[in-house]
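Why do we care about 3D structure at all? Because function follows from shape, and shape follows, mostly, from sequence. That is the central idea of this module. The next example makes it concrete: a single protein chain, its amino acid sequence, and then its structure expressed as tokens.
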Amino acid sequence: MNKMIGFIILLLGISWFHAQSQSNVPLMKYEELEKKIQAEENKLLVVNFWSTTCAPCVKELPYFMEVNNTYKNDPKFKMVLVSLDRAIDKDRVLKFMKNKNLTAEVILLDDIKRMNTWIPRFEKDWDGNIPVTVFYKNGEKIHFNDGEMSKEELENTIMKHLN
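And the structure:
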């Protein structure tokens, strides 16, 4: 009986932890995001820029979640979803995360006024449209995808660069 109670408490704890991991979205400035990218050593880092109001972004997110769920236990892989929604729309982002069961780390980039400064720092040819996905290895950009990605394109890019 005690083992069963312990097991139930463990399951509740795991469920609570999962819910907690999706219950907050940190607000970051570009410089903080840049430091976060640089700090991810020995990993393939997939950084997707999106918004809750962007139809192509919303369309591709299920593919990103499928792929993230495949690789999330690989210590050489990490996915970060960077929302470009406004900071005042944080509650909408949180609700969207819950409704869409976003399993990757989500960050709200609170730096809209300086977009013309930080966009070219990610990619000189990026015109500011989303979705955009940037792939990094050891803090260095290795691939830039402008526009919506299919699940196959995402998987192929990851497999090409993961090892």
